[in-house]
Design a protein that fits this description.
- About 75% of the residues lie in helices and about 0% in strands.
- The chain is an all-alpha fold.
- The chain has a single domain, classed as MetI-like fold (Orthogonal Bundle), CATH 1.10.3720.
Amino acid sequence: MNKKTRKTSNFFLRTGTVLTIFMLALILLGMVWTPYDPAAMDGSARLKPPSFEHIMGTDNFGRDLFSRVLEGAGNTFVIALCIVLIGITAGTIIGAISGYAGGAIDEVLMRICDAVTAFPNVMLALVLIAIFGSGDTNVIWVLGILFVPSYAKVVRSEFKKQKSLNYIKSARLMGAGPLRIIFIHIMPNIWSVLFPTLIIGFNNAVLAEASMSFLGIGVSANKPSLGRMLMEAQNFLIGGAPWYAISVGLTIVLLILGFSMLGEGLSQRGRDN
């Protein structure tokens, strides 16, 4: 790794780590405490600008925006995390079987993945949610399944690469079975590649959930979500209360930026080591 590349990698890694820790701290804070009740309405405090009393201002119902952003970020984070867990679990299993087995099994599984990725994810998600209905659970399962092919292809590629190496050939000669080779020998050696992909997938899950909520078919309407709040804020962006959209939009940007820079830093370090 040359000096310039090392500096760039360290910058992304350090900045991403700081931003990510900061956003995760806010999310954890919102899960246990908020300055005000996020659902409490106050007609006398409608669309108040940021102040010491309300550091992000209030919305059109007089609700404290900072409290709602804290809870909304927590809801978005939990949903995105569930989406990624579904995608990574199913994708790892499919990719491992496909990459290790090869042949007809590999061909069939990859053609199914190609069929899923042939359509834009957001468009396909809209169709499936329209069929099965909106709500947290349906959004999580639909988006989680749509994320499976991306993880499956990464795992498949790494398994095909690893299974031809000498240490796997030695394990076979020593009598190791397929399950032992997959879980004991290969899986620990692909996490360095899979982890940055996991972080990128989390960012995509945040954006996908926010997009669904922005369109009004994401999380339940009775709980805050960053996407739904951004949709509500657009009516007050010009001439009314720009702090509404800015506070929510900035939260989404910082959350995604932190994980993006962390993932990029880890990817650069992995490529150059």
